[in-house]
Amino acid sequence: MDVASIDARLGQAVSAADSRELDRVCETVAAELVEANLEPPFRIASADFVTDPWLICADRYWRRRLLAEPTVEVAARCARWLHEQTEAAARADIVEKWALGYAFITKDSVESRHDLTLATGRIVEAYQGSADICYFATLYHAGKLRSNFWFDELHQFLESSLLAVAAGGHRDDPLFTALRAFAAFGSRTITTSHALNLLDTAWDATSRSRAVVDVCLNALSAAPPFPGQGEQLRRRATNAVAEYPDDHLFHFRLARGQRLCADYTDALATIDTALRLLPAIGSRISHELLQGQYLREREMAQEGLDRATWTRHQQTRWRDQDTANRDLRRTLQASAVRAVELVTIFTAAIAFAIGSLQITLTGTMPLRDRAVLLAILGAGLLLFAAVIVAGTWIITGRHHPGPTAPDRHGQA
User: Fold this and answer.
1) pLDDT(179) > 90
2) Which residue, 133, 337, 339, 385, shows the most beta carbons closer than 10 Å to its own?
């Protein structure tokens, strides 16, 4: 394979109207280079991963290399090629995207601490301790730990490994700080306040890149629950979507933040946008991994919406039942009072009738005295009836709390 023929084929792919054809040509050339055991013999002038066929082809090449041999030593060779074959203006974006992207698709092959130590020695010796190359290799290994959510291992690696130390001044880069924040959020030995301080430092950096935004949002999303987590994620992801409106990953992070804030309807709309923006070209591995994550997030948002709808319906039923219970209690109370009134009045009337007959038909008392006795008897019975009726109203009129509607956990 000669450089001229490769350039000609990739140059022709530029004019391809179909992006799938561009991707096919780049993938084919990359496969041929791997088969011939040749590194891409061309320079990269841009960080345009959508239309630059030379960059796309190089990306496919190193993806194949790392899938076949997912080690920090191959990552270091990739870094050396990058620094030799790319323009300086485009290099930083490519470094971050490649290191973390390749880590994601090879996360199931984390090197042991022993193997990593041996590889670090060979890398430092082979590349004369180049901080740039060691930084790329550090990002690659750290990206694997991040993708597996190995928070404590990531914290230890970034803080004390020889490879991370060899990255030199890059340890102060925003992306390195963002990875430290990610490790801190999940670590059981680091406080949330310290993790938030690291996150703010990376987020507020003037040289903040898309990769920094991604890791910061991932840190908030993957962290164990803490007060204000959902609002933090939703707020920062909203800013990220405003800055990168076509980035499917940031829409995915926003959907999770909305779901954590119980904004299930918005979360469903946002995750549908993420699925629509997810490109269906390129490596099927990363596409399927991301699509699986997005679909799981959508299922959780739908479940949350269903639960919220069920809860609202249940609360409405509980309120209606409570109202019906109160109406029934009032009806029973009124009926009881009416019954007591009738019984009391009827009893008083019978007692008065019997008493009046006895007073009228017996004895030799004068008429005036009999009238007085009848009046006293009637007044006493009337007072008796009034006391009974009033007591009934007072007793039945006391407030008795009805059944309390269960809370969202089903407890009364």
Assistant:
1) yes
2) 133
Q: How far apart are CA 215 and CA 318, in angstroms?
A: 45
Q: Specify the pTM.
A: 0.74
Domain ranges of the chain: 1-68, 330-396
Structure tokens given for 286 = 């990363």
- Mark 122-156 as b/e (b = at least 16 C-beta within 10 Å): ebbeebeebebbbbbbbbbbbbbbbbeebbebbbb
Q: Lowest mean pLDDT: which of 180-184, 276-280, 385-389?
A: 385-389
Q: Residue 132 corresponds to which amino acid? A: D
Q: What angle do CA 38, 39, 45 make, to 5 degrees?
A: 145
Q: Classify residue 70 as left (phi > 0), alpha (psi -120 to 50) or beta.
A: beta
**Would you give the DSSP letter of residue 44?**
B
- Using one digit for the tens of pLDDT, what is the confidence trace for 299-316? 998 998 788 777 666 777
Long-range contacts of 379-385 (CB under 8 A, 24+ apart): 381/348, 381/351, 381/352, 381/355, 382/348, 384/344, 384/348, 385/344, 385/345, 385/347, 385/348
Residue written as token pair 């350039």: 7
CA angle, 285 then 288 then 289, to 5°: 85
- Non-local (6+) Cβ contacts of 403 within 8 A are 321, 322, 325, 412
